[in-house]
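Table S7 (text form). Paired inputs.
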Amino acid sequence: MLTNLLRNAAQAEGTRRVRLSAESRGDQLHLRLEDDGSGIREADKSQVFDPFFTTKPVGQGSGLGLSMVHRIVNDHGGTIGVFDSELGGAGFAITLPLEDLLETGENEAVTPNHSATRGRQS
């Protein structure tokens, strides 16, 4: 999920700096990712999570990265939104329930010691 957000930020026109912050508040994890690129046009903000939506020229983007991020966040019971970054570009705010993140599962999970693991937990 973060890989897709970071890739999107790094590929934004004019991006020189990306800021990622995380904070736990109560039973939720709040993530913010901001870049100083060209930003997202107001008319496009409502579509950025739609599958196959891209502002890149034909052949340069599949339009699936942010759609996948949106699906993953929703699958974990979280929310994601887009905003104008304080750095001058675009930003994404993600809220995830910590309880879901600490559970183990079939794929990627975060264990109580906060290390990312892959595969089945025993």
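Next pair, protein 2 of 2.
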Amino acid sequence: MRIVLLLTLLITCLNNCWSQNLRSITKEDSIKIKTKIKDSLTSLKNTLERKYENSFLEKNQLIEFTLDTTKIELKTLWRLEIDYSTASMVDSAIYSNKKYDELLNKYYKILLNRLDEEDKKILRQSQRKWIEFRDDEIKLIVRLSKEKYSGGGSIQRVIVAGNISELTKKRVIDLYQYSLGVSEY
């Protein structure tokens, strides 16, 4: 369901991108986006609650995670619907990364709180190593975007920002999935 919704929004966004209706996001646009997100999330929550009404174990986690991630994706898509300039694409990826980083901390804490002391140490060590990996991966992404490797162009800024955001998003998904397999300690 979530994938279908996101694909539909992405297609809509891409269709609108070709119409060359480039402009800055106004305060009114921001209000409309917030209202659309709120309405969409309410509808999605109701749908998920009906779909998983007999599954109590992971229902609340699933709904919360889906709403958390959908909110980020919708805001990013609807902002790009209004302004799909290179600068806006980079800003949207930076926004997405910031919000996924907030979720990373949230789901890290959820998992951490479900572990005993010995396993908490392992999770902390894993997270520190993931941060080292992320930092090295960002260095690689930036290097590979240089003109001598990529051919250059302003699109490289979009690609770099998007790849960095995807790193964080993937870690959030991993932590969430790990937490599903662990009951509260």
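Residues 48 and 63 are 6 Å apart (CA to CA).
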